[in-house]
């Protein structure tokens, strides 16, 4: 029997992103289900503490394999990145608990636009007028959702945007220190620092899940978060970002469907319109950056 042809790198990347969508959706639903019983600050800490256990194999491997040890040459940036992820987790979980699931997810998608702006402002990366226009469009989409002066302002939406800002800043710092210390060091440091960053707020609302069902949902939260993180890394490692990036937005469908089926939530016209603008802007940024990277690669390969 002939062996089936292997999947192309883009097909593999798309499948990994679908796994990421499933993990992110499971995590989002689990946060909402547990939030009536446990404060979101406690959920952020438990998620971080259990996820940090996954760091131990990296530490053991570094010690036993005889290879180069994990190093933290820029430890202030490692520390700052972990603190930013702690802010993103706490504010993101709070937004999930108090906003419609689709609305919070749409606002989280502002992170790529913020990351592009931070890269230009703080790292000196060239960003042309078209990408600045896409960033402005993404912010316009957020304004449409917030609709100031038309509806009563919901401060939780600002907390969701804060989560996107913190995550974007952590992404840029991770790119900077990862090029020096490696991705393993970034993963280890952020996992450990996030536990320390999420512990103080959790101490004021301390509590543990009661009953087997609550612990099972917490396990789904931790596992979903881990699947999302790992799948994102694998997806962009094997696939073309310009091809696989649109699959990320399937999360809006899965999260919106979960919100409708489990919590009776619906999306109003303003949120749908603002979401379409944000998705269009962030997708353009992803495609544009992919084209620019290809152009640079072709130039470097030319004789």
TrEMBL record:
Asked whether the keyword Phosphoprotein is assigned, the reply is no
Membrane-spanning ranges? 42-60, 80-99, 105-124, 131-150, 156-173, 185-206, 212-231, 243-263, 269-287
Alphabetized InterPro entries for the sequence: EamA_dom, EmrE-like
Its primary localisation, in coarse terms, equals: membrane
Tell me which residues make up the EamA domain. 13-146
**Which Pfam families has this protein been placed in?**
EamA
What's the protein's topology in the membrane? Multi-pass membrane protein
**Family that this chain belongs to:** Belongs to the drug/metabolite transporter (DMT) superfamily. 10 TMS drug/metabolite exporter (DME) (TC 2.A.7.3) family.
What protein name is recorded for this chain?
Answer: DMT family transporter
Annotated organism of origin: Paralimibaculum aggregatum
